[in-house]
Input
Amino acid sequence: MTDRVKEILSWYKSENAGVLTNMYRLLMQGRLAGTGKMIILPVDQGFEHGPARSFAPNAAGYNPHYHYQLAVDAGLNAYAAPLGFIEAGAVEFAGQIPTILKLNNHDTLFDETDPLGAQTATVEDALRLGCVGVGYTIYPGTMDRRVLYEQLREIILEAKSVGLLAVVWSYPRGSQLSKAGETSLDVAAYAAQIACQLGAHIVKVKLPDNTLEQDAARKVYEKYAIPRETLTERVRHVVQSAFDGRRIVIFSGGAKKDDANAVFNEARAIRDGGGFGSIIGRNSFQRSHAEAMELFDNLIKIFKGEVQ
Amino acid sequence: MTDRVKEILSWYKSENAGVLTNMYRLLMQGRLAGTGKMIILPVDQGFEHGPARSFAPNAAGYNPHYHYQLAVDAGLNAYAAPLGFIEAGAVEFAGQIPTILKLNNHDTLFDETDPLGAQTATVEDALRLGCVGVGYTIYPGTMDRRVLYEQLREIILEAKSVGLLAVVWSYPRGSQLSKAGETSLDVAAYAAQIACQLGAHIVKVKLPDNTLEQDAARKVYEKYAIPRETLTERVRHVVQSAFDGRRIVIFSGGAKKDDANAVFNEARAIRDGGGFGSIIGRNSFQRSHAEAMELFDNLIKIFKGEVQ
Amino acid sequence: MTDRVKEILSWYKSENAGVLTNMYRLLMQGRLAGTGKMIILPVDQGFEHGPARSFAPNAAGYNPHYHYQLAVDAGLNAYAAPLGFIEAGAVEFAGQIPTILKLNNHDTLFDETDPLGAQTATVEDALRLGCVGVGYTIYPGTMDRRVLYEQLREIILEAKSVGLLAVVWSYPRGSQLSKAGETSLDVAAYAAQIACQLGAHIVKVKLPDNTLEQDAARKVYEKYAIPRETLTERVRHVVQSAFDGRRIVIFSGGAKKDDANAVFNEARAIRDGGGFGSIIGRNSFQRSHAEAMELFDNLIKIFKGEVQ
Amino acid sequence: MTDRVKEILSWYKSENAGVLTNMYRLLMQGRLAGTGKMIILPVDQGFEHGPARSFAPNAAGYNPHYHYQLAVDAGLNAYAAPLGFIEAGAVEFAGQIPTILKLNNHDTLFDETDPLGAQTATVEDALRLGCVGVGYTIYPGTMDRRVLYEQLREIILEAKSVGLLAVVWSYPRGSQLSKAGETSLDVAAYAAQIACQLGAHIVKVKLPDNTLEQDAARKVYEKYAIPRETLTERVRHVVQSAFDGRRIVIFSGGAKKDDANAVFNEARAIRDGGGFGSIIGRNSFQRSHAEAMELFDNLIKIFKGEVQ
Amino acid sequence: MTDRVKEILSWYKSENAGVLTNMYRLLMQGRLAGTGKMIILPVDQGFEHGPARSFAPNAAGYNPHYHYQLAVDAGLNAYAAPLGFIEAGAVEFAGQIPTILKLNNHDTLFDETDPLGAQTATVEDALRLGCVGVGYTIYPGTMDRRVLYEQLREIILEAKSVGLLAVVWSYPRGSQLSKAGETSLDVAAYAAQIACQLGAHIVKVKLPDNTLEQDAARKVYEKYAIPRETLTERVRHVVQSAFDGRRIVIFSGGAKKDDANAVFNEARAIRDGGGFGSIIGRNSFQRSHAEAMELFDNLIKIFKGEVQ
Output
C-alpha cells in the first residue's frame, strides 16, 4: 500500500473495514494501482441510449464479455454496468476486474425533462455477483429528486452495512435548469456536494464549463473571484466542493470525441486540478479495441504523470 | 443433452443450478428438444383482450384444459398463462408440460396510452404450481415504466433465488411513441436490450418492421448501414441487441393471420436470423385443434430445418 | 355428497383440502344443499349506499342480527357482509350459516367515476370470525384497477393458504365505460374472465343486458353470431367466459324490484343458462321478512327445478 | 341449533367466533348432532403402537381411507389422526367429516417411563387441511411435562387465534405414578383439571378406576366421601373436575374389548355420569366394518337415550 | 403419462401441483419411466462412514461427478446426496438427473447407540440447486427421536409449500433395540408407518428379516399369522404398513454384496411384494463402472418384468 492510498482511506474512517477493503481493492487494481488515480469503464449506454446508438460504432460491444475483457486488458480499476451486463460475465471474469453494479437506470424511449429512472438491481445482487460496490445516478435539479435521494438513502445504508462501496453519478437535470446549466460550474460543484452529503464514497460528475447558472451563485463566484477560466481550475473547484478533496471525485468524458487529444486534454486538467480520474465509456468502447487500448494507455500515462 | 443446449446454458453461468435445471427442462421438452429452438403457447388474451375476442373463433378455448392439452399434443416447449388458467389445470397436467406463470396482466376495459398492468400473481404461486418460470410484461416507453421495472426487479431477484426462469415480454408503448414506432426496428432492439439488462433469461419481443422511430437512432442506423431490408436481417439485429445472441430472444406472432403461410414465413425469418423461436398464441388457439396441430407441425419442421 | 358437488369440487384441484372443505360447506348448506346452486345474502349496502337508503324500506334491517337470521330462516347458502356486520352477529350465529367477510368496501360520500374502495378487513379477521371465505370487489375498467388487482392478489394468496374461499365481486366501472356499458354483455363476460384469471373461486357479476360496449368486441360477437337475444343466452355466455363453466359464477339482482316476478324471471334465466345461483340483497332485506321468505322460497324452488 | 348446543357454546364465551363455529360444526355433525354428546374416531395407533398391532385384526384399516369412511358411515362427530393419515384422505373426504389433526405423537420403539412424544404437525397444517381443530397429548406426571405444557401453550394460543378447536388428550404417566395410578380416580380428575387449565376446549381422559394414587388426595376423597363406587359416579367426579362440567370431557375406550357389552356399559356410565361422549378407536377399527357399524349404532342409541 | 403413474399421483391429492410435478419428474425419468418403479442412487456414505470405507473399493467414486454420471448413464430415476456432493455437480449435470438433497447426515467419528445426526442443508438449498426433493433420515427407536421428528416436521411443511418432494429414510436404531431388531419385520413395518404419518411422500426402509423384535408385536403377528417366511411376503407387509400401498416405499440394499445375484434376488422380492423400487448405493458405486452398469441393467430388467 502506498502513502497516497493510505491517505485516501483515512478520509473514510467512519466506514467499516469491509468498505475500506473494497476501496483498497479499487485503488490497488490495474496499472494505476497505488497512485490514488482511477479509470473506470462504464457501460450502461445500452440501457440509457439503446443498443445501436451504443454499440453499432464497434459491434464487438454488443457482447457483454467485450467490456469485461477491455477493462482487464487495459489495466483499468473497475468496470461498471447494469444487472444484465454484469450477470453475463460475472462468473467468467470473477476476480479479474472489480465490478460496480449500476443499481438504477433510465431509458430514453420516453424522454422526460425531469427524469427519474428506475431501480433495476439491488445490493443483494451486488453481493451475489461479487461486486466491490454499487452505482446509482441522481438527477439533482429534477422535480422528484426526493424519490431518488430516498431510494439512494436506503441503498447506501444497506451497501455500507455489507461493506460495499457507494458510487454516485450526480447529473444535474430538470425543468428549472437550462441545457447549458447542466454543466455550469456552480451546478456541477453543487451536484458533487449533494452526492457527498448523501454519503457517496465516490462521486462522478461531468466536466464543468465556464458558465454559471444560478443568479444567487453567480454573485458569490464573482464576489470572491473563484478561479474558473481553465478546466483545471474548474476541476479544482469541484474537488474542493467535494469536502475539500476528502471524497473521491471522478469525471466523465461524455459522448465520443473523434479527436482523442480532446480526451487527453481533459485528463490533464483532471490530473492537474486534483481530480481522481475518469470514467470513460463511449470514448473507449465505440473505438476499435486497438484504438481503445491506445487511448487508455495514454490516459494512464497522463494520470501517472509519465507524460505531460 | 445436445451441444447446442450446453452452449446456451453456458451463457447463464451467473445463475444457480436451479435456474439452469429449469432452463434445461424448457430446452429439452417436446419436439424441439435439444435444438435450442422453442415454441411457447401463451394464453393471456382472455385477460388482455377479453374472452369473446380471444376464444369465440374456437370456442373450445374457453376451457383452460384445452390449452394445456394443445401444448402437450403439439409437443411444444411450454405453456404460459395468468394465475387462473394455470391453476385450473396445474394438477391435471402436472409435469406434462413446463408452465410459465404470467405474473402481471393488463386488461383493456380501460385503455391507456401509457399502460401499467398489475401484478396478479407471485413467485410463491409459481413454486406451489410447479412452474419452470415466471413471466412479466414491461412496456418500455411508457411514462411510469419505472413502476414496472422496479416490480420486475423484485420478482427477478426472488425468482432466481428459488431457481425459476424469468421470462420478460418487452412491448414498447407509450405516449411518446407512434403506433408504428411500437414495432420499429430501433425500438424493438432497444426493448430487447432493456429486458436483458433487467436480468431476463428469455426475452419476448414483437417482430420488427423496417421503420425507425427515434431520430437519434436513425442517424446511427443510417451511418453504419445496419442491414434491415429483410425480416431475417431485422431478427438478426434484435438478437444481436440481446447481448450479441447470448440471451434467448423469441418472437410473437401477434394477431391471428388467416394465411398460415405468413406465420411460416415469419418462422423462417426467425430461424435464419438466429432467433430462438416463437411464442404463438392467437395464431394457434383461434384455429381449430386440427389446424393448430398442423400449424405447429409446420413451424417445428421449419425450426428444425426439416423444411425450407 | 352429491355427484354435482363432487363435479364442482373437481374443478378446483389445485386448491388445498381447506379450501375444498369450505367449498363443500357452502354447497351443502341450506335448502339448495347438494344441487350445485346457491343463494347468498349480501348486506354491504349500509357501507356502499348509506343506512337509510339501505334499511329504511324495512327498518328491521338496521339490526345486524336481522340479516343473519334471514339467511338462516330462508335456508340460504351464505351471508356476506363487511367487518362490522359480521362481527355484530358472529358469535350469536356461529356455525348456523356460512359467512363471507367482505374485505373491501366503497362508500359514496365521495363518489368517483373511477372508484377504488378500501380494504377494510383481513384474512386474519375471517379466520377469527369463523368465515368460510372472503369477498373482494374489483372494478375492472377503472383507471387505477391495478391497485385493486394487486391488493386482491395478496388476499387470494393468503386466503388459499389458510383454506378460505375467495369470492370476487367483479363490477365494471370507470371513466371509459358508458353507464350502459357497465352491464353490457361483452363487458360482463370480460369482468367474469378477469376475476377467474385472478384466481377467484366464486365470481359474482351483474346480469348482462343485450348491448355491446367495446367496438373491438362487437365485431367478434357479430362475426361469430354469439347468441345474446335472451337473458338465458347471455347468462350462458358469461358462464362460458368463466373458464367454460369450470368456475362458479353467480349473479346479482341489483336494486329492489317491486315486482318479484322480475326477480323470478332472472332466476329462471340463471338456471337455464347454467349459472350457479344468485346473490340477492336489496330485493330481500328491503322487503318485509315474510315477503323475503316467500321470495327466497320461490327462488329456491326455481333453482331446484321444482317449478318452471 | 338445539338448546343443549347453545348451552355448551355458552361455556366458551371467551373464545372467538371461529372457535365457536368449529365447535358448532362438531356438535351438529352426524347422528348425535344437537345432543351435546359426541363420538370421535381416533386413529393414531399406527404411530403409537405400530401398524400390525393396530391394523392386523382388521386389515382394511391399513388404508387411511377406511377410517374416514367409517367415521362418515357411522355418523360420528369427527375423525382424529396424525398428519399422514389426515393428508391421505383430506381431499377425497373434504367436508364430509370434521377432522382433528393430532399435532404430537409418540412411538413405542423406544419406551420411556416418562414419555415426551414429538410435535409432528402444526396449526398451519390444520388450516390447509381443513380441520376443525387440533389435538395434543400431554402426559401429566412425567418428569419433563413442562416441555409438553409449553409446547401446547404455543399451539393453543395459535389455534384459538385462527378459530381452531384445541382438543387435549390428558394421559397421566411417569416414574412417580404406579401403573394402576395412571387410571386412578384422583389422577384422572387431576389430569382433566390440568388440561382445562391449559385452555383445552375438549378434554379426553381414560375412564377412571376406583383406586386412589396419591396420599394427599386420598385423605380428601375419604374425608369428603366423594362417591366413587360406580363408574357413573367416577365419570361424574371427572366431569365435575373439568370446571364443574363447563368443559367438554370425553372418555377413551382403551384396548379392544372382545365383548362389546363392556363398551356399552362404559357408554352408559359416561352418559349417566354427565360425560360428553367417547373417543373410540381400537374398539371400532379392529372390528370388521359391519361389527363396527353395529357397535357405533348401539353407542349412539345409548348416548341419545334411545336404549337404556 | 402411464396409467400407473396417474394412479400413484392420485394418492397424493392433498399436495400442491408443485409436489405432483416433481413426483411426475421422478417417475417419468430414466429407463423405468412410467412403470411406477424407481431406482435411486444415494451417496451419503462419505459422510456417514468416511471416504476410504466408501470409495476405496472403486476410487473413481471420490469424485462427485462420478456418481452424477453413473446415475445418468444407468438411466436411474434420481441421485441423492448431502450438500457438498450435490453442489459439486449441480451445474454440470443440471437437468440431466433429478436430485434429492439429503438435509441431515450423521458421521461415525462419534458413534452413538442413539444417534441424532445433524441438519446440514436446507429446503432453500434444494431450490437453488434445482433438486426435485429433499431427503431426511429419522432413527425411530432412539431416545431423542423427537428432535428428529420435530426438525423433519418443519422441513416437510416448508418443502411441500414450495413444491418439493419429501423423502424419508426411516432407520430404526437405539438402545432399546437389539442389532437384529433394527431389521426385524415388526420394526421395519413400524418404521415405514412412522415416516408415512410424518407426511413423507417416499419412504426408504431396509429390507426386513424374518425376525420379530417387540413382544407386543410378536403376539399379533402370530395370532393373525401374518405371512413372513419369504422376503416377498415381508416386503408386502411393509408396503401394506405404508398406508396399504398408498405411499411409495423403496428398499435399500445395504452393504456391498460380492454376489450380485443376492442383489437381484432382493429386487425380485421387492417387485413381487409390491415394493416401488430400490435405493442402491454401495452395491453400485463400490463396483467398477462397468460392473455397476451391468448390475443396474439387470435390476431395471427385473423391475420391468423383462426377466424373471
Remarks:
- Chain D has a mean pLDDT of 97.
- Chain D is about 45% helix and 15% strand.
- The radius of gyration of chain D is 18 Å.
